TrEMBL record:
Keywords: Membrane, Transmembrane, Transmembrane helix. The lineage of its organism: Bacteria, Bacillati, Actinomycetota, Actinomycetes, Mycobacteriales. The chain crosses the membrane at residues 5-25, 45-62, 179-197, 203-222. This is DUF4239 domain-containing protein. It comes from the Bacteria. Pfam families: Bestrophin-like (PF14023).
Length: 253
């Protein structure tokens, strides 16, 4: 909350400075004497383009978060499937496979989630645990047709976990393209300058309106930065799917 207030205050100060300094520099005889509509059309075009960039980025943020959450849920479901199927495997494979599933899920929650937030990547040690799980499942004998069928179904769930994990790694590193950020900042600067170009004079009401405009733009830019990565910032993808999986393991046991 403190960060949001500081950024909003800075946005208001910057907007007022731009307006006051621009109004001082802008030739006085041009103020409110624009005459033709061409300038108004350009300013409207700038505002509409800025709104279009905002809308496009909001859609991208929503898509990124939706994909990341969907992949996380698919991975957790696959882990529950492996754990449930392994419950019927013969010993010692039953305990071994379930042990690796628990270890992998715990590593994702305790280590990998923080690593995705800080460094936007997956943990190599957690990947090694998933590889060990695959090796443990491959070691299950297939002499018994029922066990062989069970192992085949468990490998299907393991494939789901592997693919979802790869997608999660892509989601952790993904961010909005740089050219959109450039367009957003250029558009914000043009919107702040537009009151000067439109010839508005320095009055108390105009200064208050410009300050409010700066607050809105600065707050929006801050929130966009917080939304840029689905596993970082304030609006992160929840990890409830893995927590619920750990709870389900206990219920299966």
């Amino acid at each position: 909350m403190v960060q949001e207030l500081i950024v909003a205050g800075l946005g208001a100060v910057i907007a007022v400075i731009v307006f006051v300094a621009g109004a001082k520099i802008w030739p006085e005889e041009w103020q409110r004497e624009r005459g033709e509509t061409a300038e108004d059309l350009v300013l409207d075009l700038v505002k509409h383009l800025f709104i279009a960039v905002i809308a496009f980025m909001v859609v991208l943020f929503w898509q990124q978060d939706d994909d990341a959450e969907r992949h996380t849920v698919a991975e957790a479901k696959g882990l529950v499937g492996i754990y449930s199927l392994a419950h019927n495997l013969p010993e010692p494979h039953h305990q071994r496979v379930q042990g690796f599933v628990r270890e992998y899920t715990g590593r994702v929650l305790e280590r990998e989630w923080g690593l995705m937030r800080r460094e936007h990547r997956l943990d190599t040690a957690t990947q090694a645990t998933l590889t060990a799980l695959q090796d443990a499942l491959a070691a299950v004998p297939t002499d018994d047709p029922a066990v062989a069928d069970l192992r085949f179904k468990t490998f299907d769930s393991l494939q789901q976990v592997t693919e979802a994990r790869q997608d999660r790694g892509v989601d952790a590193a993904r961010r909005v393209p740089r050219f959109l950020w450039i367009a957003l900042y250029v558009g914000a600067a043009l919107v702040l300058v537009s009151p000067v170009v439109s010839g508005r004079r320095i009055t108390r009401n105009n200064v208050l309106v410009i300050a409010l405009l700066g607050v809105v733009i600065a707050s929006m830019l801050l929130q966009f930065h917080n939304l840029d990565r689905p596993f970082s910032g304030h609006a992160v993808v929840p990890r409830e799917a893995f927590e619920n999986a750990m709870t389900t393991f206990g219920q299966i046991d």
